[in-house]
Records
---
Amino acid sequence: MTETREADAAAAPALPVAGGDTVTGLLAEIAAIGVDRVRGGYSRPVFSSAEHDLRAWYLAQASKRGLQVDTDRNGVIWAWWPGEPPVDTSAPAVVTGSHLDSVPGGGAFDGPLGVASALVAVDLLRARGVRPVRPFALTVFPEEEGSRFGVACLGSRLLAGTIDPDRARSLTDLNGDSFAEVAARNGLDPRFVGADPEALARIGTFVELHVEQGRGLIDAHQPVGIGSAVLGHGRWKLSISGEGNHAGTTLMADRKDPMVAAARLVVLVRDTARAHPRARATVGRLQPVPGGTNVIASRVDLWLDARHMDDAVTASVVAEIHAGAELIAAEEGCTVTLTEESLSATVHFDPALRDRLATVLPGAPVLDTGAGHDAAILSGFVSTAMLFVRNPSGISHSPEEYVEDSDAEAGAAALADALEALLISPVTDTARETV
Ligand code: GLV
Ligand code: MN
Ligand code: MN
């Protein structure tokens, strides 16, 4: 502890300290929520009962720490450290957070690790007697994975105004329920979702801690790393239409089977990505309509996820796949349409903030990532950084995703170190100075 911190600790207001919570302990508290007995792992889609229970748990944890909790009109939860002196309430805030929703059959750490680490970081800052001079908040963003309504980072996109609210309202889930309907059933007023410049302007610096979703930290033999960039990525829906018919009575020569076209298209996706070094392209979801064992499908919808550090390469990969899909569809007597559902350019986090964190966390390797994050959406508007925590399986979006207990605690301590440096950094220009 520094001398300043010791002196400040004596004068620190008597705020509740949760005390004793570890990241592993907090994650254990939610380990039974959203377990998917069919797929394995966790399925915690936004506005499901599992996600509702996670939010309730989070609100209780934030309240227990004396944080002032508010859910905004986009469903983003904010938990504010009390703004007592020496906090300069007019200064831009330091904000940290992540998400609680998951992909179908996902792991325990993608999202919740950052949420639990932020709570533990609050405890560590309190225990160290840190007295922020800047506003400080924790956040939880809804629908980061886009696994219910198809658009990843929907909450942060709405907040930042990078998605048209009309489009967001009309997104539908697998049951055909619109985001507007589901949001309304869950306490939001869908008329008011969308850009929130006031909330965005309060953020000066955003730091998201996340489980690493690759092998960078395994190879570097380090528990914690600092993010440098997020690969550009997008999602496209391909709908192949053919002719629905009877599996027993339709001769093979007479078929217009979109499932056969879809199978060829999946291989084309792989081969196209392989032809572009460092590109990634995936078909992880495919839906035959109507979907019966003895039915030739009339239509197959499949979703393409494509990524590359160079946005022009991503565009070429998608264009090549689209052209190839049209050829394949024609050969199979079908037609195909391609619709872009979301697209995010490659993001480089604020280099000054990254370098600052590198001085606070000496030895932490600097890594880019192929996974999307709310931090990447926010980085278009505020100074943003990420911390990654080692995942010894190197696997994510799967029940195999993993974090050792000691690494989880090292991650929270690193987050607390980073936040401390940012929170006590003097506010020299009270107008709009960021750290
Ligand atoms: C989210 O994790 C994504 O990268 O799609
Ligand atoms: Mn995530
Ligand atoms: Mn994810």
---
Amino acid sequence: MKSTYEDVERVLISEDEISNRVSEMAHEIDEYYADSGKKLLLLGILKGSVVFMAELMKHIRIPVEIDFMKVSSYGGGTVSSKNLTILLDLKRNNLPQTDVLIVEDIIDSGRTLSYLVDYIKLKGAASVRTCTLLDKPSRREVDFEPDLCGFTIPDEFVIGYGLDYDEKYRALPYVGVLKPELYEK
Ligand code: IMP
Ligand code: MG
């Protein structure tokens, strides 16, 4: 069977670069929340964030809990793609005693995270911040800045390290750019 590696045009961010940056981010998280006095919850957004989340949490030294939400930007196919639908919700009764750090793979228009930050604040979390592996600021449609960002990248569609194209390539260990002919199909 053909390897998914053959579909990659080029590696944008290598495994080593990612792992160095992710451990730096974990140290920043340790320092920021060290004296908070609340529980820290890493809230991963499925599915793209799972690889980043797994790597990040291994480097965090302070006590941390994890949870996941899943959102779809297709609103059941009838409403505008700008509407988000919550497919898996966060159910916790201790949010007022919890600092929530939302963990995302990539920020594009900014709609997903700006919606989720408001949503988790409305649920009453002690604090809500965001952490993304990648950011494409040139694509922003709403005003949104992450609190912590791994890499700022140009306006290119990327795959790997959790990110998919048509549900494929999430398992690649680096962030890469697909061969352009593969987008046409
Ligand atoms: P936003 O709401 O437009 O910021 O969308 C962010 C979501 O779009 C991410 O969680 C990804 O699922 C998806 N996305 C945006 N850009 C890319 C990309 O280059 N590769 C893979 N997924 C992407
Ligand atoms: Mg995503």
